[in-house]
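Predict the 3D structure for this chain.
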Amino acid sequence: MNPKSSKLIKDREIKYTVLIASITSSFLTAFLGSAVNIALPLLSRELSIDTVLLTWINTSYLLSTTIFLVPFGRISDIYGRKKIFLYGVSIFTLSSLLCGIANNYTLLIILRVLQGIGAGMLFATSTAILTSVFPIGERGRALGLSVTSVYIGLSLGPFLGGVLTKNFGWRSVFLFGAIIGTFTIVLILAVLKEEWIEAKGESFDILGAIIYGIAIASFMYGFTKLPSRIGFYLVLIGILGFIGLVYNSSREKEPILDVKLFLNNRVFSLSNISALINYSATSAVSLLLSLYLQQVKGLNPQSAGTTLIFQPLTQAMFSPLAGRLSDRIQPGYIASIGMSFTTLGLFLLRYIDNHTPISFIIFCSIILGFGFGLFSSPNTNAIMSSVDRRLYGIASSMVSTMRMLGQTFSMGISTIVFTLVIGRTQIQPENYSLLITSIKLIFTIFTILCLVGVFSSLGRGKLIRD
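Done. Predicted structure below.
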């Protein structure tokens, strides 16, 4: 075999090895995230957690993930993306195991924070490694398959999470996640031998990382505490922190987050803003529908999970197609069409009540799934293809940061509405009407947000392909 053929085979092996590693890790985080939503009502009853505290099972995880995403993205660029990727899977797996044996609310929240740190390491590197080995022209397809694995995880999460919760209790969901994580670790150690260090020798901006962490933690936690006075104060601290981060970025030669990326790169900035809006408007949908189906409609966890499976299944069907199309057509166009369908699905869900048939929920879920499938991988392709190779770790981090920040905003909006309408009390039959009122109001807010996102997505301009 000649050297050229040997190199082509080796390159192909590396590409598919990276793709498998990305797919398994993406599936792991997506599966556990969606399965936990199904387990929340039973978890709430067993640990006697009220509605507001219940939302922190997800919010604590999302908050810690978002805080550590950008720092680990920069660290992976400097010290090695595979190394941080492997550490992330290991931490995520261990914390999943410990969550499965936690016996009180406080310990569970601490472990969810640890799990979020591991997820931050994973999210900061998975897309970066994938983008490192797949060139423009092949990248959209690879990203589409990776996103599809997310949606398969989301699809199996509600169904399998419902089966596990019904038959073995909520702890089994975390333990099953630990099993998947262990398999992923073995897979990485066995087949992923390459390393990617595009910014080796560059400095790490410690001060910037600290400012970023304080700013985003204050802002996000403050948002969940609104409309209280402490919430406003924390949001203000967060805003001041971001101003400080901009100032630090202007002084540092190699800042933790280069603000010029947003100021001088229209595709990068508006693609990230579109992602933020999209996730802010959609991430709490599965939680809201889970509460509605199990509390108002009286479905058991397994039946609720089966109903919720249609949304991610539709996403999984159309995401690879959207990814391939984004290699040939401007990804912003495809993402904007997807956002429009998402807006329609959210608008229709504003009209659910006690008598809404399950078939209507399934219909709306399919519309949402179609919209999500068209938006996600093309939007990610636009972000990753708009920056230099040495910034793939930061760009990958921003992709996930927008997702996690959006998820936190989505949960925060839900928490604020629940607090104002229902109050700090467990959901009982006597306040089902207030639950429905809350859900309808939340979907109205989400519809308006997503409509704004359509125009943000359309305004990004064209991606210049090399």
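The radius of gyration is 21 Å.
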